[in-house]
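INFO  loader      accepted 1 record
INFO  loader      residues=200
INFO  predictor   begin
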Amino acid sequence: MVLLPDKSIVLLCTDPPYGIGISKRGQIGTGRLFTPKKWDSSVPPKAYFDEMRRVSKAQIIWGGNYFANMLPASRCWLVWWKNDGLPCHTFADCEMAWTSFDKTAQVFNSRWRGFIRDSKEPRVGHPSQKALEVMKWCIASFSKPGDTILDPFLGSGTTAVAAKLLGRRYIGIEQDEEYVAMARERLRSAVPANASRRKA
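INFO  predictor   done
INFO  writer      dumping tokens
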């Protein structure tokens, strides 16, 4: 990321580690197993957030409530409401994203609780996989076709897949080789809607 020029990215959309240890548990939710990792042992230092804001014109940072002390005040928080009509549970009912936009706060409803999920994409071997529809909502709402989207904490690749499906360019940065392989496989399978129309 340090090699990218200032404000060279239209939209940074990412989900950094929250520092809650989810990567070390080996399983989540309905007993789905994951390879234990150490990447979620702490939150990234402030220098990472400063660099993300330097290289991009606009930012959406999921888990923003964990990083509020390292980001400026924002009135445009995004909320992913997961618990729509579901009973209370020990998991969070929602997730929040800090944004750099001077707009009103927005909520996206998409149930995501164990087997009850509105997003139908398969779970891969990453414990904090974001729902594809959530990331598509972010990218569709805050960028245009042809824009470049950056995710410096790519994980299993959901942001890049959403960008590809919506006709955006994308840059993903991920240090874990297992996750890189997951992201590449998902990207190989992702076919933008306009590509299928061209083939018809």
